[in-house]
């Protein structure tokens, strides 16, 4: 079993970062309105069945694709690789493992490799996208939260070590991790993995899975986070504000979480630190109240129990049940005291 700090410095192909997410939504117009008017994403292209969106900082054609569907699921998560050669290297690597890895042409992103990870998560690896104008300095087009770029995903899976081993072999490094103490042993409850030099591109926490817990976009500064909350109230999205504003212990980011019209969860945040040097991962006890929020209050129970399923992927329950520190438990203990 690899150690949490074991590194693969010469991976079989070069993943550079989290790239894009494809969501199935029931009402395309309602979702488009949420992501443009509240989140502040820019429409790159659209038709009757799909909307392609990007952040204001992004040059690539899309980081979020909304597809109209009868079910609200996540179709896939995308990872960018350095160049097209890495796509073929990835195909060879997965084929040698006996996995089904399919090369396809995808609109606006060209040659793409589709494969599933050990947890069953559908992945797309692509090297480039059609370029669009970077709107970073087009301040007249900033609206809502003014989301800048896609940064990371967080998933729930039944087996943390299985998920971690898959990505560790691809050169992902653990920046931080969470454990729970069961008897005299430490049980790994979550891992924060990165390729691009900040704390995470993909996160795994324990739960029925695989499911997409959330995807995250960066904001210019904390004022945009408050503006997002104000805009949510003005547009009738106040009930969609699920958590925050707050500050994470892990990563130190200021955060706010919203649920879109289908219940897909998005994080809007700023304030990352660099994780470029080869340094040991930082461990957190799940029971530490400052792990999730430096300001004290834990998340509601639904934060741990609700997430987006992947399209046509069955759920698996964890072998070991861990009861996370919820807001409901916190308040019950406070009342008992």
TrEMBL record:
Organism (species): Chimaeribacter californicus
Protein name per Swiss-Prot or TrEMBL: 3,4-dihydroxyphenylacetate 2,3-dioxygenase
InterPro entries according to UniProt: DHPA_dOase_Mn/Fe, Glyas_Bleomycin-R_OHBP_Dase, Glyas_Fos-R_dOase_dom, GlyoxalaseI/FosfomycinResist, VOC_core
PANTHER family referenced in this protein's UniProt entry, alphabetically: GLYOXALASE DOMAIN-CONTAINING PROTEIN 5, GLYOXALASE FAMILY PROTEIN
UniProt lineage: Bacteria, Pseudomonadati, Pseudomonadota, Gammaproteobacteria, Enterobacterales
GO MF annotation terms: dioxygenase activity
Signal peptide range: none
Pfam families for this protein: Glyoxalase (PF00903)
All copies of domain VOC, residue ranges: 17-128, 149-271
PROSITE patterns (alphabetical): VOC (PS51819)
Swiss-Prot/TrEMBL keywords: Dioxygenase, Oxidoreductase
């Amino acid at each position: 079993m690899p150690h949490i700090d074991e590194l693969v410095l010469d991976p079989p192909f070069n993943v550079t970062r989290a790239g894009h997410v494809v969501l199935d939504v029931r009402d395309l117009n309602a979702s488009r309105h949420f992501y443009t008017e509240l989140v502040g994403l820019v429409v790159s292209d659209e038709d009757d069945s799909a909307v392609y969106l990007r952040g204001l900082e992004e040059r690539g054609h899309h980081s979020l694709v909304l597809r109209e569907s009868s079910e609200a699921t996540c179709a896939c998560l995308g990872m960018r690789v350095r160049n097209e050669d890495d796509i073929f290297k990835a195909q060879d690597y997965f084929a040698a493992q006996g996995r089904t890895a399919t090369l396809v042409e995808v609109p606006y992103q060209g040659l793409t490799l589709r494969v599933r990870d050990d947890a069953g998560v559908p992945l797309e690896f692509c090297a480039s996208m059609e370029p669009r104008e970077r709107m970073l300095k087009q301040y007249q087009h900033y609206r809502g939260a003014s989301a800048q770029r896609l940064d990371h995903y967080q998933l729930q899976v039944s087996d943390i070590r299985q998920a971690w081993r898959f990505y560790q072999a691809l050169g992902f490094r653990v920046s931080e991790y969470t454990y729970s103490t069961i008897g005299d042993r430490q049980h790994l409850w979550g891992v924060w993995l990165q390729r691009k030099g900040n704390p995470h591109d993909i996160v795994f926490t324990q739960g029925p899975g695989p499911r997409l817990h959330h995807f995250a976009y960066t904001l210019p500064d904390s004022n945009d986070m408050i503006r997002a909350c104000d805009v949510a109230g003005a547009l009738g999205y106040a009930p969609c504000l699920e958590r925050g504003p707050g500050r994470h212990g892990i990563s130190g980011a200021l955060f706010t979480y919203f649920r879109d019209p289908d219940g897909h969860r998005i994080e809007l945040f700023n304030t990352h630190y660099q994780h470029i040097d080869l340094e040991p991962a930082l461990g957190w006890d799940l029971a530490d109240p400052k792990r999730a929020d430096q300001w004290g209050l834990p998340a509601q129970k639904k934060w741990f129990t609700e997430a987006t399923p992947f399209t046509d992927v069955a759920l698996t329950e964890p072998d070991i049940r861990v009861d996370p520190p919820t807001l409901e438990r916190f308040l019950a203990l406070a009342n008992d005291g």
